[in-house]
Task: structure prediction
Amino acid sequence: MLNRKIFSVSQINRYIKTMFENDFILNGMWVRGEISNLNYNKSGHIYFTLKDNTSAINVVMFRDYSMLLPFELENGMEVIVCGYVSLYEKTGQYQLYAEIIDPVGAGELALKFEELKKRLEKEGYFDEDYKREICKNPKRIIVITSPTGAAVRDIIKISKRRNRGIEIFVVPVLVQGENAPDDIVRGLRLANEWGQADTIILGRGGGSFEDLNAFNDERVAKAIFSSKIPVVSAVGHETDFTIADFVADLRASTPSAAAELSVGNVSEFSDKLFEIEKKIDIFFKNKLYKEKEKFLDITKKQVLKRPKDKIYNMQFYLSGIEKDILNAAKIKIKDEQNKLINIINRLEENSPIKNMGKGFFYITDKQSRPLNELKDISVGDEINILFKDGTAKAMVTEVKPDGN
Result:
């Protein structure tokens, strides 16, 4: 019996894995396909199947790479995956290990849209502080759009229906294709250079995401932001959103809605004016009636019949008050004078100078400080003795304390 070399399953899988890892093509490739069976694992890894019309391959993107993914994957999305093919030894299945994933077609445009939106928002292009109020009763509006589309016809029809006197100027531009962004920027520049319009309506009819892509251009966004005239964005249908919508001073869901938002309804203003006129008329009639009643009441008053009597009575009344005030003042002054005389008399009675005439004296030391007690002086001190009619200087020859 021939010697047979027997391998384990692990050995076979390891060998095949080594073959994959040593293959130049399998170690770095770009694969295009559609995502299905998408699974965002709680660990952060992403698992899905990449398929085309006839085949499929399992794909895993580990957490370290998935964290760098700038958009969210969805089932049915067509993508291009960059990575390497290797074998998972535990199950013996080979799979594609993704490191980079790029969207294809509309997906790529959507990714660029989101990236530009985030950047412009961060730079302040969408801030409400920069948005200006749209004129409610414009005299002129400029419509920047395709001259042959339904959008311009809808705007003109609705604007004229709301206000026949409004002037509408159309700046024809491309609204789709590679040259459309530059053409739209040119239209905005021309409108601002003219400078005679109150409002700019920028828009086009509906279309696919790719059709509306000219309004997702950064150059268009900056031209709208720099416009000196308020801009109303009216691109596509109600569910369509473009970068122009976010930057504009006002977003309208459709071109028709833009006309309604930009042009005031003259008939509504006429009705309001009529109502205001009626209210003013009623107000003044009521006011006139009330003032007439007041005038008649005033003319019936006695004071208007004999106005001099009122003046004489008031003069007599004021004369009496004047006399009362003068009398009260005289009495008050007399009382205060008597109080002052009493105070002066009391002060004179208690005056030390007056008591000196009764045999009392006022004694100070050389510095004119009063000497009140015997302990304040000593033998040999010079003292001043104040009499009623003058002062004498003396010297202490003897100090004799009280026997007590």
